[in-house]
Amino acid sequence: MTWPQADADRLSHLFDLAQRATEADLAALSLADQQEVASLRRLLDLIDTAWQAPEAAVDRVNALFLRKLAAEEPHHPWVQGSVVYTLGELIRASGAAPESLPEPVYAQLAQDPTPVEQLLEPEMRSRAAGLAAQRAAMPRALISDFVLWLNRLVANLVQPAGPAQQGLVFPRRQGHRQRGPKHDK
Amino acid sequence: MISDTQLGAIEQAADEARQHVRDHLAAYGCTLDDNYSCLFDPDITLQAAVGLITGGPVEPCPNLIRRDERLAGVLEWVGITPFIYYEAYDLVVRQRFSIAHELGHFRLHAQQREHCQCAHAAVDPQDSDDEPLATAPRFEREADAFAAAFLMPQALLRADVAQFGRCVAFLAARYQVSEPAMRRRLRRLGL
Hints:
Helix content of chain A: 55-70%
Oligomer: heterodimer
Structural class of chain B: alpha+beta
Distance between the termini of chain B: 19 Å
Shape of chain A: elongated
Structural class of chain A: mainly alpha
Order of helices and strands of chain B: HHEEEEHEHHHH
């Protein structure tokens, strides 16, 4: 279907108004155009409401933003998260573990005393986290999930603002899903 | 074309990367048969194997686009952390090749710490059994050669061809790669 050029231009103009125009701008339009702009706005609202970013995409953007913010403005309150010293503290601070991790394994990992600095470099991380996983009797089938989850947690860590301060900062995360008991559906 | 010397170095880098995965997994008390690639282990995903090497996230991303171009995979650096993303809507065989391709950039070109944004045409070209175009950037061809060597280890593939014959569909399914990728690999190895 092709639109006559004049109709296409008009629709394009109204669409532009629906996104940007103020009420004062709209008052100058004809009644028919005002109604059409109102319809377009309702349609755009519906689309906005229906659109949901995948959680992984939200997490990624959030993490990248916080890292950039932490680098540029280390004292910004949004990056004043929890200072963590151990793997267990990091896991507790994250608040969200893979649902596949059994509760006893999670509970054991959440108490793990491995210094968080040992998790920064991949070789050391495998040695340290591998021992922690063995202490927690992690089933072999869950290692993949755990590795990827831990990589994501460590990628979120930032150096604390003070040069002499030990530990690493796990940024506070708004509205993140917390691990909790599973509910029957 | 990539020279035979360079190909030899890439094969070696891929072998070392797989050994690296085995070493990392040993730290988890997870032993693997030395003669068998960790890539066939049902418990260890390719994402986790690559994550063990890079230390960074390896994640799917729906509609992976950079600079208005749809991509198969990217390797991006945030500080010292490498992030690998791959297209969530691609077929699994293509996703696996994209992940291995980005690992290739990490192993072969990481010293530059540059973002690598890899279009579908540069990663496991599906519409051709030919090698990637000579006009493709050299580092893309090298990463593709690495991905092929990582996912289809030379020694294992030679043994499989001797045992099962040269059925591309069977071998592609066994190694979880596309048939064009398997054909290119067999031809490159002279099989």
